[in-house]
Every structure is written in C-alpha cells, then in structure tokens.
Specification:
By secondary structure, the protein is of the alpha/beta class. The chain is built from 9 helices and 8 strands. A 6-stranded mixed sheet has the order 1-2-4-3-5-8, with helices on both faces. A two-stranded parallel sheet has the order 6-7. Strand 3, helix 4 (about 150-170) and strand 4 (about 175-180) form a beta-alpha-beta unit.
C-alpha cells in the first residue's frame, strides 16, 4: 500500500468503549442492500490461528518475496500446489509490463483459487502475496535498500487464505467463494502511487474477459486482508471502503460484532491506497481490513515475532463465517 496517505489510524476508542459500540452496531438494523449480517444459520468450520501462523512462518522462511525473487517463485509454486492438493481449481492470471524502475520486463501473476458451486453471486476474499523490494522506512539507512521479509505486510493475509482454502476444501460451502492472491501490490516507490497495486489493477480491469477464472460469476463484494497479523490488532473502517462502499463495509463490521470479534473497531479510519481501490473504481463493493498502525511497516523488523496467531484467528473467523453464512 502507498505511504501517500496517513500512516496511522488516529486515536482509537478504548477497548471497552469500542466493544459497546460494536454491540450497538450488531443490534442496529442494516442499511438497505446490506447482505453480510445477521448470520444465517449453518455450520461453520473452526478457523485455527495457530495453523494460519504456521503458514505465515512458511512464507517468511522463503525470504523476501518481491516480483522476480527466488522467494516469490517458491511461494507461487506453493499456492498452486496447495490448491491442487486440496482439489480446488487454481488459475494463474499473469501479464508482463515494462519494469518502471529497471530496463527489463516485469512479470506479475495473480492466482484465483475457487471453492463452492461455479457461477452465480460470489464472495471474493483477497490478499497480496508479494513483499516490498526495499525497506525504505527502516531507521537504519544501511538497510533501506534491502528487501524485507514482510511477515505482517504480505504473509499475514495470505496465511489466512491458505488455511481458509483448507476449510473450503474439507467443507465445501453452499455459496461460491474465490480467493484472490494478488501480486505487485507493494512494488511502487514512495510518491509514485501509479506503480502500486499492479496485480489488483489488472484483475479489476479484466475479470470479465473471456477465459478469466472470474468471468462466470458476479461478485457480491470483495474483502481485502492486509496487515492483519500484528499483536493487539485494531482494524478500523478504512476510509475509501467506508466512503465508496459504505453498505458493504458496515455489513462486514456488523458481522464481526455479531461474532464478538473485538479486533474490528467500528470507527472511521484513514484512507489507504491498497488493492481494494481498483475494484472500487470498477464498481465492485470492496472493504480493506487493515491495521495501518504498525511501527514495523516497510522496515526490516516486519518479521514473524511481530505477529500473533490470535489476531490471525479473529480475521479468519470473520471471513470463514462470511463464506458459510451469507447474509439474507
């Protein structure tokens, strides 16, 4: 995500006050058209934060995972092989462009893993799997040009998706769900927002194209997971999501409230230029679940020890519930 926006979500309400607001939000009627709450009855498999944390550590063990790196190539193979082992369709959506910061070509590959019945109205859940090729906010200037590990900014959302894929395969949902692994979200340099979110921009522009793995259905909405692994997670209502997809955003937060997930704080947060923006521009309701108050952001300190399985579990419980209990 781009740093051309405020880098912290402002002053959050105390957890006790936030919990009270969450309860009020859960009990209040939703705006017309909101579909994500209250939950419809139905079994929901248990999401394991410990299992997601193991997937986070696996990714970080590959090293930096920026486009073209050995670590990213390993992660691409893992995503594809994991889906194949589960019997879930996995379609790469790749393209090349001139490297904006070099002389060669840059290959960008998104992956779409699908579950549930084909076609129809579908839930899209997304995360970027690339990491930043530079630690440009590191307090040590000697480290600023080095690629980072990206435990929270990169691996956390993907860890949730990899474990969610296991649940979707073992317990096929009644609704269609597509997991979007997005590439080149963090390739841009400071002050150059045009070269962020490259994979998401391509997918949002071409998802209806003939041969696209998403073309057979229609999205109810997109839930983006980014930087969801930090300790004491506190996710506000991201600014662009609330402004351009307010009904969808409030419905997602109402679902979190109904589940008693206190990591989701029903307050307006800052706008963050992230992978949901191209989908919003394409007219698709999209919410960015992100806690941008993360001191390790874009530094060499974004490592697994800064992350917490309890945070991953709260996020995983929310998206799992959305998969199995769509709104009425």
């Amino acid at each position: 995500m781009s740093s051309d926006v405020p880098s912290a979500p402002g002053v959050a309400a105390p957890r006790g006050a936030a919990a009270a607001v969450l309860l009020l939000l859960a009990l209040a009627p939703l705006a017309p058209g909101a579909r994500a709450a209250p939950p419809a009855p139905g079994p929901v498999p248990a999401f394991s934060g410990a299992r997601a944390m193991s997937w986070l550590r696996t990714q970080c063990a590959f090293g930096p995972r920026h486009p073209g790196s050995p670590g990213q190539l390993r992660l691409r193979r893992l995503i594809s092989a994991h889906a194949d082992s589960l019997g879930l369709p996995c379609a790469p959506v790749c393209f090349t462009l001139d490297d904006p910061y070099g002389d060669g070509r840059l290959e960008v590959c998104n992956y779409v893993v699908s579950a549930g019945p084909p076609g129809g109205q579908r839930l899209w859940i997304a995360a970027h799997y690339d990491t930043r090729p530079r630690s440009d906010r590191d307090p040590d200037p000697r480290l600023a040009a080095r690629p980072l590990i990206g435990a929270n900014d990169g691996a956390s959302g993907v860890a949730v998706l990899l474990h969610l894929a296991e649940l979707l395969a073992a317990h096929p949902p009644a609704r269609g769900v597509d997991l979007l692994f997005l590439d080149a979200e963090d390739y841009g340099r400071e002050g150059d927002p045009a070269n962020y979110c490259l994979g998401a921009a391509h997918l949002a522009a071409h998802w209806r194209d003939f041969g696209s793995p998403l073309a057979g259905g229609s999205p109810e909405g997109l839930v983006l997971l980014d930087m969801v692994g930090k300790r004491d997670l506190a996710v506000p209502m991201e600014g662009y999501s609330l402004r351009q997809a307010g009904t969808w955003t409030r419905a997602i937060f109402a679902r979190a409230a109904a589940l008693g997930l206190d990591a989701f704080v029903p307050e307006a947060g800052p706008p963050v230029w992230d992978d949901h923006v191209p989908f919003l521009r394409a007219g698709i309701p999209a919410v960015d679940l992100i806690d941008f108050d993360y001191p390790q952001w874009h530094t060499s300190r974004d490592t697994p020890d800064a992350c917490d399985p309890a945070s991953l579990e709260q996020v995983g419980r929310l998206v799992t519930d959305l998969c199995y209990r769509p709104g009425s």
